[in-house]
Amino acid sequence: MDSSPTENPSESVKRLLHETFDQQIPNFASYNLVAAGGLAGSGGLKIIGYRRQPAELVIAPIRPTDLSASEAAITINNTNVNQLAVINDGGYEIATSTGRVFRFNIAERPSIDLHIDDAVVHSVELDQVSDAEDFADFMNHFMNTIEGTENFV
Question: Between 81 and 119, whose confidence is greater?
Answer without folding.
Answer: 81
